[in-house]
Design a protein that fits this description.
Layout (H helix, E strand, L loop, with lengths): L1 E14 L1 E3 L4 E7 L5 E6 L5 E6 L5 E5 H4 L5 E9 L7 E8 L6 E9 L14 E4 L4 E7 L8 E6 L9 E7 L3 E7 L8 E10 L2 E10 L2 E8 L9 E4 L9 E6 L5 E7 L1 E5 L1 H4 L7 E4 L8 E8 L2 E7 L4 E8 L8 E10 L6 E5 L6 E6 L5 E6 L6 E5 L1 E3 L5 E14 L10 E6 L3 E5 L2 E5 L5 E4 L5 E7 L8 E4 L14 E3 L3 H7 L5 H6 L6 H24 L3 H15 L13 H6 L4 E9 L2 E8 L2 E6 L3 H14 L4 H8 L5 H25 L4 H9 L1 H8 L15 H7 L1 H7 L2 H16 L9 H33 L7 H5 L4 H20 L1 H12 L7 H9 L8 H21 L11 H7 L4 H31 L8 H16 L11 H24 L4 H29 L7 H26 L3 H30 L1
Parallel strand pairs: 10-14
Antiparallel strand pairs: 1-32, 2-31, 3-4, 4-5, 5-6, 7-8, 8-9, 9-10, 11-12, 12-13, 13-14, 15-16, 16-17, 17-18, 19-20, 20-21, 21-22, 23-24, 24-25, 25-26, 27-28, 28-29, 29-30, 32-37, 33-36, 33-38, 34-35, 34-37, 38-39, 40-41, 41-42
């Protein structure tokens, strides 16, 4: 049984991408995941496929280059099979360089996923001989390879009429057949379309003959000297100028025609001469209709067109072929159309929802999607992946956590179904899904039991989520039924204020007093409708009724007085023409009524999404532009504050490393003395008993969250977790190459570190196994529980390890630290959104690993500071690490800034550590450790250490604090050397070291806590010390769980270790937030 927590915000969603420029002609089909797959001729004349990369943007595949086509593409055709594989048939012609001749290339059939590995495309090229010039390919819906027709001129006969031929495509070859000689009758062709009738495969040809529009159908059989030719009647005055086909229930082809009105002839009549086309709609929207396009999936059909008034519209239909029954409802105007507009529509085969790609006047592609459930349209930019590019779009971002209801442990790597109230695109944990009400996505939580859900939005409304059990799953998460979540809830709370005239004026509303008052009333009424909807949603029967009624009305004629939400997009484009609006109830249904001139458009308010869309329209009408609305309701990243934190982090790290390089040789004896005392200090630490109940108190997730409720809410905040999500995604495609191992580092590894770690490894694993048996149960441990299983063996192992490593390290300390600084300043070629962010917002021409990690840490640290204190961390500039170490902070302001930043970075590091550790576990069995990730780990650890140096000489247990800091720093340096060594067993060796260091630091920390509780000193705070004790317990459990997950290859144990690690990391983050909250007050 699961508890589900969701926190959502409307915010800027950033992608490492760029907008796709306008192309010459485009055709859209769907890929294997039902995302739009677009083929288009690029500005360079090459044929491209634009395919979703499953992470929110698209990749472009140069089909021309991949198959070896020369020159520029003149024409292409693409067709998709209606089977489960969605097989693609593709043909295109290109002009040969330095020649007037052209080549024909035929491919197929191939599955859409083949385009993800373009090199495989050459396997699907079908060879043949071409003879045409400037060909134009098209084809039918016939079985096997569809009918392929080319129109062309012979190279030697440029002044002759164009020719048209069938290209016969067989299993492994293609060939030209006879010229069809159609043009002998059709001297002036308007449009052609392939089709299949009962008499065979052929072509519909619309042409001019003696200034009269004429329509014919002719069969195209192989070596057929007597084709079946049909002359069909076209009524005078119909002005037919465009044709397209659909497939009927009998798999034959019906014909749709556009001109003045919409016309039709079914397959059952098209085979017989003398039959006439019939008008099936005289709606004024079809006046001068042209550029006809028919999209189809099974019985579902949509008819697209532009008209004489430059309006782009569509009509829902079915494939019945019956004149009076095939059109569903009225034609719908969608948006203004430019004279050069090109578009392509597809229907999702599983939901029958529409995706519509249109070329914007701004020369960029826009993707529009319509949900069958609601008929509402949403738009999002059609983007292509570009490393170090940065596109900011609006999206509802949700941080969803699943926990076991009893143990409160995160349900890591747990499958759950996510559906939406309307068909839409979601990015869940970095992967693209098309999701609908009856089409859930089955997704898996990460190691922390988290789903990050991103729903792109072109306004302020969103679809709601429903979380449910996966059918057939052994684990029941929601025994009481599915759980819903509304990502727009915070937006709704904010826009409720717009029911006030004063708030509308503050937001920039313009107009007369009466107009603004009417707008405020409409907004209040819409909120009232929302309240009543929420009450009715308590009952499934009540919740379903308005939706069912909405679908009926959506398909009804205008005379019914209601409009489907499909019309709303058109109203938005003409917002300046709106004269008034009102919210009214009729027949137990709420209507949002918009008046344009003397026409009333009624939209049924049957969902929260409808309410918010209505409010947005009202606001825009009275002059509150969408950008202004976003500023009011969105979470805004304050980049100037984040940049200041980022610069402070970099200043501290660079100053700390410079100081280390400078004095490491001078401090060899002093550092040696610290580690010489380590054995005595550890022995004393294991004898320390904490006063009161601090040593025996059981630490568990439930107690942590109940004792730190406000802190727990901060760590679950979507803004705080957004940067770590992008960090996790960015690592997947990060590109950089750390420098090679220097001789000094190699010698330190070979002669000192490797032998010491191997010797200590077996004993460390024994200790870890013992504590693991305690920790893997209910995850409820005390300091005494951990002390009970560590003792003298730990002291001996650690001292042996640390002494050997420190002695070797100090000999070449300057070289090692210089190498680490060099490593952190390695140039990064790309890293998710952070490359574009650093270049675009921070104006860095180049960036390094340290830049990436510093910004990853700066974003949540700044947000946490604002959530806790209401203001950003204090600016730190030109930090002097040497001065702080040797003399303490220069002034109280610097001290305060340093301590404050340290507390926020500690929380952020706790959030990141879980991401680092899960990759360590996952890659432990891989022959070579991925060096990039380890370098990022090093950067995170170093920042955490350098920002937490124990500078305060008056604080209790300072010698122990220095020892703790020293062994952690040593371990971090060892990690960097191990990383550069990149041996097959590096991770397992480091795991042994982490066990020893984690347990030793834990023991020493308890001495510090003991002194803090028993001594009288200026900063004494028992509650804060108690929180620190809690944090140390979870820190050591997290380290041990990670080590077990690395060392043990068995998958079940790895999974259990991941769950314990994730819980511990989450608890640590909550506790550290609690400490920061307490410090801020």
């Amino acid at each position: 049984m699961a508890d589900l927590h969701i926190d959502s915000q409307l915010m800027n969603h950033m992608l490492p991408a760029t907008a796709i420029s306008n192309k010459k002609h485009l055709l859209a089909i769907h890929d294997e995941k039902h995302q739009p797959l677009v083929f288009s001729i690029g500005n360079d004349g090459h044929l491209y496929a634009i395919k979703s990369n499953s992470s929110g943007s698209n990749d472009t595949i140069n089909v021309s280059s991949t198959v070896g086509a020369r020159g520029t593409v003149d024409a292409f055709i693409v067709k998709q099979a209606s089977d489960a594989d969605g097989g693609i048939f593709l043909a295109f012609s290109n002009t040969v360089p330095d020649s007037s001749a052209s080549e024909l290339h035929v491919l197929g059939p191939f599955k859409p996923e083949i385009l993800s590995t373009p090199d495989q495309l050459t396997r699907y090229v079908i060879f043949g001989t071409a003879q045409n010039d400037k060909g134009q390919a098209t084809k039918s819906n016939a079985s096997n390879w569809p009918l392929l027709i080319a129109s062309y001129n012979y190279v030697q006969e440029h002044n002759k009429d164009a020719n048209i031929s069938r290209i016969l495509v067989e299993a492994n070859k293609w060939r030209w057949t006879q010229d069809l000689r159609i043009y002998e009758q059709a001297k002036s062709t308007i449009s052609i379309a392939p089709g299949t009738l009962s008499v065979g495969d052929g072509l519909f040809v619309l042409y001019k003959k003696s200034q009269r529009t004429t329509l014919m159908f002719t069969t195209i059989q192989i070596d057929d000297d007597s084709p079946w030719t049909v002359d069909l009647q076209v009524p005078e005055g119909s002005n037919i100028n465009s044709i397209s086909t659909y497939i009927g229930p009998d798999n034959n082809t019906g014909l749709i025609l556009a001109g003045d009105g919409l016309w039709h002839i079914p397959a059952s009549e098209a085979w017989n001469s003398g039959n006439s086309i019939k008008q099936i709609s005289s709606d004024p929207l079809y006046k001068g209709a042209t550029n006809l396009h028919v999209a189809q999936s099974g019985e579902a059909v949509s008819i697209w067109f532009s008209n004489a008034d430059r309006v782009l519209g569509y009509q829902h239909a079915n494939n019945s072929g019956v004149d009076g029954q095939m059109l569903l409802g009225d034609p719908v105007p969608l948006r203004p159309a430019s004279p050069t507009i090109d578009y392509s529509a597809i229907i999702d085969p599983s939901t029958k929802s529409q995706s519509f790609i249109v070329v914007e006047n701004s020369d960029h592609l826009l993707l529009m999607e319509q949900a069958t459930e609601t008929e509402m349209w949403n738009s999002r930019p059609f983007l292509v992946n570009e490393p170090n590019g940065l596109v900011e779009t609006n999206a509802f971002v949700s941080h969803v956590e699943l926990q076991d209801s009893h143990t409160k442990q995160p349900l890591s790597q747990t499958k759950v179904n996510v559906s939406t109230s309307g068909w839409t695109n979601l990015i869940i944990n970095g992967t693209d899904y098309m999701v609908g009400k009856d089409k859930p996505a089955t997704v898996e939580t990460n190691v922390k039991g988290v789903l990050t859900i991103i729903q792109p939005s072109d306004g302020i409304s969103s679809y709601t989520y429903t979380f449910s059990d996966v059918p057939g799953s052994d684990t029941v998460l929601f025994p009481s039924g599915p759980v819903t979540g509304d990502p727009s809830q915070k937006v709704q709370d904010k826009i409720q204020n717009f029911g006030s005239v004063e708030e509308l004026k503050k937001a920039g509303a313009t107009g007369t007093k009466d107009e603004i008052e009417a707008a405020a009333k409409a907004i209040r009424d819409l909120h009232d409708a929302k309240s009543k909807l929420e009450k009715s949603d308590n009952s499934p029967e009540a919740a379903g009724a308005p939706h069912a009624r909405a679908m009926v009305v959506a398909r009804a004629a205008h005379s019914s007085g209601s409009s489907g939400w499909g019309f709303f997009e058109w109203i938005k484009h003409g917002v300046e023409k709106i004269t008034s609006f009102v919210v009214e109830a009729a027949e137990e249904v709420w209507h949002f009524v918009v008046y344009v001139a003397d026409k009333a458009w009624k939209f049924i308010v049957d969902s929260v999404t409808a309410v918010v869309k209505g409010i947005q329209l009202v606001l825009e009408k009275i002059g509150v532009a969408l950008k202004k609305i976003w500023e009011y309701v969105k979470y805004i990243f304050e980049w100037d504050d984040i940049k200041a934190t980022y610069e402070g982090v970099k200043s501290i790290v660079n100053s700390g490393l410079d100081y280390g390089i400078k004095i490491v040789g001078e401090k060899t004896e002093e550092v040696g003395n610290i580690f010489d005392k380590l054995e005595v200090q550890l022995g004393e630490a294991l004898k320390v008993k904490l006063p009161g109940d601090h040593g025996t108190k059981k630490q568990s997730q439930a107690s942590v969250e109940s004792g730190n409720s406000s802190a727990a809410s901060h760590t679950k905040n979507v803004e705080v977790n957004n940067a770590t999500y992008h960090f996790e995604e960015g690592k997947k495609t990060a590109k950089y190459q750390p420098g090679t191992t220097g001789e000094a580092l190699k010698s330190l590894w070979d002669d000192t570190i490797e032998p010491a770690l191997k010797e200590a490894g077996a004993g460390a694993k024994r200790i870890a196994d013992t504590i693991w048996e305690l920790a893997k149960g209910q995850l409820s441990l005390s300091v005494q529980d951990i002390y009970a299983v560590i003792g003298g063996e730990l002291v001996h192992l650690l001292v042996t390890l640390i002494k050997a490593i420190v002695q070797g390290l100090m000999k070449i300390g300057q070289v090692v630290l210089a190498g680490i600084k060099d490593l952190l300043n390695t140039s990064v070629w790309s890293f998710g959104i952070f490359g574009g962010l650093l270049k675009k917002l921070f104006h860095l021409p180049d960036f390094s690993i340290l830049d990436v990690v510093a910004i990853v840490i700066a974003i949540p640290s700044t947000i946490l500071a604002k959530l806790i204190t209401g203001k950003a961390p204090k600016r730190i500039q030109n930090f002097d690490f040497a001065r702080m170490v040797e003399k303490g902070p220069t002034d109280d302001e610097t001290l305060l800034a340093y301590n404050e930043l340290a507390s926020y970075i500690a929380i952020t590091k706790a959030l990141i550590d879980a991401l680092v550790n899960v990759v360590k576990m996952a890659t432990a069995e891989v022959p070579a450790t991925p060096p990039q990730f380890s370098v990022l780990t090093l950067a995170v650890d170093l920042i955490g250490l350098l920002i937490s140096f124990p500078w305060d000489k008056k604080a209790p247990g300072r010698d122990y604090r220095i020892a703790i800091w020293g062994i952690l720093l040593t371990n971090t340096i060892v990690l960097s050397v191990c990383t550069k060594a990149s041996t097959p067993y590096t991770l397992k060796i480091i795991a042994a070291s982490d066990i020893l260091v984690g347990l030793s630091a834990f023991a020493l920390v308890q001495v510090v806590h003991h002194d803090e509780l028993t001594e009288e000193w200026k900063g004494k705070d028992e509650e804060k010390t108690g929180l620190n004790i809690t944090s140390s317990v979870f820190e050591v459990i997290e380290k041990l769980a990670t080590a077990v997950g690395i060392v043990v290859p068995e998958p079940v144990t790895k999974l259990a270790a991941g769950a314990v690690m994730g819980t511990s990391a989450a608890c640590k983050a909550v506790v550290k937030t609690g400490i920061a909250v307490k410090g801020a007050h």
